[in-house]
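Large conductance mechanosensitive channel, pasting as requested.
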Amino acid sequence: MLKGFKNFLMRGDVVVVAIGLITAIAFSTLIKSFTDDVINPLIARAQGGRSLGLGWQLGRPGNRATYLDIGSFVSTVIYFVIFMAVVYFVIVVPYRHYQQRRGLQVFGAPVAVTTCPACLSPDIPRGATRCRYCGADLPPHHATGNAATP
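Structure tokens follow.
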């Protein structure tokens, strides 16, 4: 039972989704700070508003609604960078190491792809000899269409 739970948690897609969610939450905090501390005061200034810290007062002194709070925004950017470094070094690096010991490659460079000349599928691995979609034989050095390199 515990082995099944461990296998479920260690599937690549579960960890990738979890990291994506964590990144989205941290990025959401960054965006919220930008809107609360930079955009909202600009809008409030258009309506009518004292210096409260690192930033500029756009209206009446002491009016928080019209204060362009750069200090708070910078602090949120720093939080975001630190948070993502922690996620990377505490979750991604150990998970990558664990999966490499199992013989799996995760969070690596994308595989170079090309386009199938027969069906125009754009995601055929560059070294493939046959298209996975239409089954057409591919020339040894098929480099037609969009070739993405890592």
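Note for the archive: The two ends are 39 Å apart (CA to CA).
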